[in-house]
């Protein structure tokens, strides 16, 4: 473990805001050629359609700004008409805010508990070491309560239910949320060091590689020149994805249907907050196709720099994949991805209150804004939404062991973690916070074989129980 917390690596340590593309090993040129071989005309036509669509969408974002991010109150999730409207907007935009998932007073109590937990355990590792705000704790009382809370689990079931599958036999259960233990962040006012440029998690070059996202053809519609037919919410093509071929810091071993965090503070848009690029399908298609094209006039100051006629498919594909380097996240910026016009398309999320749950698609372009000196401290806990799958069950078995021993969550390196931390919760606290569903999400209680489940889900539940409780269940 180096002087940073493993599990956090800034892509802009490699790419500066105005940095140029970095050539990769020659095999990446062949990877690019093979993706579009025989489909060059379709790719060019799709690129031209994409640039037109981007221009129109960015104009809309420029007018609506933060209002384009959909919001809904947790109490409205049973209102069919309201949910239908919200779901359509979320699928188009890629991110949203669910308000009052936790009562504000309770969320504020969790913030105070967190401050007490850190004060009682001053040896807690944090990053950066000079003035930590990203803390390597995974099992604090607030985090245990947040992951297991019935409202959080209900919100996750609702969100994951928005995904769909072309394969009716896909081995995934969106109604069985699985907890992923991530970290906790307390942002201090005026900390301009802590910000993130626009990026996408879940690997970088893996999105172009046959052994990565190509395993199940996640982006095949885009490679066929039919980006309009690409469905970001199709889950069966993601179950066999390998998003980390290079042991990258910050990689997630679980399949997350949504990244997210639960706020324990008031966070105003001007106080340094999450930035989202709310055009999920278009932005994904663009950063995937961008490495195949170059400007005829490379001067960004040229009046027609962004025009379709100024961009052409490279006759000889190079090894460059703009913003991608093995073992790092996918970086995006104005120099490498000019048509995304981040000065207009990257917007702050709406105001967030204690108890609000902020979520976004795992392919979504996002960043974190700088914090002005006048901002108040902001405390959040990262809680993604993960379904039950075989891969997630295997990771959950490792994570459960770490929880019981007080060690760091498996994706975040070794060390003593919270082994000797005062006030660290145990199994009883998980049960108190979330009952049987909370225990199951943490891998502490088997899932029931309920009536009405499809044969595929029944087999998945049996497999997950055998992985987590081999002394009670046989592997199917």
Automatic annotation (TrEMBL):
Organism annotation: Colletotrichum fructicola (strain Nara gc5)
Domain of life per record: Eukaryota
Alphabetical list of PANTHER family matching this protein: DUF1479 DOMAIN PROTEIN (AFU_ORTHOLOGUE AFUA_5G09280), UNCHARACTERIZED PROTEIN YBIU-RELATED
Pfam families: Gig2-like
SUPFAM superfamilies given in the database record: Clavaminate synthase-like
Protein name: Duf1479 domain protein
């Amino acid at each position: 473990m180096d002087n940073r917390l493993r599990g956090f690596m800034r892509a802009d340590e490699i790419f500066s805001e105005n940095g140029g593309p970095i050539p990769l090993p020659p095999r990446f040129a062949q990877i690019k050629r093979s993706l579009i071989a025989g489909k060059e005309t379709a790719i060019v036509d799709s690129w031209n359609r994409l640039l037109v669509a981007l221009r129109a969408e960015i104009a809309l974002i420029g007018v609506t700004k933060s209002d384009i991010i959909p919001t809904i109150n947790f109490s409205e999730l049973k209102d069919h008409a309201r949910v239908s409207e919200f779901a359509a907007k979320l699928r188009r935009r890629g991110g949203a805010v669910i308000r009052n998932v936790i009562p504000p007073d309770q969320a504020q109590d969790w913030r105070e508990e967190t401050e007490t937990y850190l004060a009682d355990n001053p040896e807690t590792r944090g990053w950066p070491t000079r003035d930590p705000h990203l803390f390597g704790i995974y099992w604090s009382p607030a985090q245990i309560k947040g992951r297991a809370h019935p409202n959080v689990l209900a919100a996750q079931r609702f969100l994951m239910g928005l995904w769909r599958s072309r394969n009716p036999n896909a081995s995934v259960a969106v109604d069985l949320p699985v907890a992923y233990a991530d970290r906790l962040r307390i942002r201090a006012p005026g900390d301009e060091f802590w910000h993130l440029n626009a990026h996408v998690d879940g690997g970088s070059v893996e999105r172009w590689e046959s052994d990565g996202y190509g395993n199940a053809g996640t982006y095949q519609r885009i490679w066929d020149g039919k980006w309009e037919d690409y469905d970001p919410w199709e889950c069966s093509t993601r179950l066999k994805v390998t998003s980390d071929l290079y042991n990258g810091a910050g990689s997630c071993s679980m399949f997350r249907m949504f990244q997210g965090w639960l706020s324990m503070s008031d966070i105003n848009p001007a106080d340094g907050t999450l930035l989202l690029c709310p055009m999920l399908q278009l932005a994904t298609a663009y950063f995937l196709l961008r490495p195949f094209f170059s400007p005829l006039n490379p001067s960004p100051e040229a009046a027609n720099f962004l025009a379709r006629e100024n961009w052409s498919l490279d006759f000889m594909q190079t090894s460059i994949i703009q913003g991608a380097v093995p073992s790092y996240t996918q970086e995006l910026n104005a120099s490498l991805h000019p048509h995304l016009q981040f000065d207009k398309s990257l917007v702050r999320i709406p105001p967030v209150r204690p108890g609000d749950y902020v979520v976004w698609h795992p392919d979504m372009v996002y960043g974190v804004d700088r914090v002005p000196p006048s901002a108040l401290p902001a405390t959040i806990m990262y809680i993604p939404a993960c379904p039950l799958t075989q891969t997630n069950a295997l990771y959950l078995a490792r994570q459960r062991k770490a929880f019981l021993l007080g060690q760091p969550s498996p994706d975040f390196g070794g060390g003593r973690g919270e082994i000797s931390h005062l006030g660290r919760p145990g199994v009883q606290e998980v049960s108190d916070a979330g009952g049987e569903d909370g225990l199951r999400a943490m891998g502490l209680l088997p899932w029931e074989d309920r009536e009405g489940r499809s044969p595929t889900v029944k087999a998945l539940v049996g497999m997950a129980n055998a992985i987590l409780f081999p002394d009670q269940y046989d592997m199917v």
